[in-house]
Amino acid sequence: MTERLVTESEAADTVVAGSRGLGGFAGLVLGSVGLGLAAHAACPVVVVRRLPRAPTGEVVVGYDGSPAAERALEYAAKQVVARQGRLHALHGLRSPPAAPHPVGFGPIMVDDGDDIARRLAEWREAHPGVELSVSMSFEHPIAALSAASRTADLVVVGSVGLSGLPANRLGSVGHSVLHRAHCPVAVVPGPSAAAQP
Question: What one-character-per-residue DSSP string does 146-163 give?
Answer without folding.
Answer: HHHTTS-SEEEEES--TT
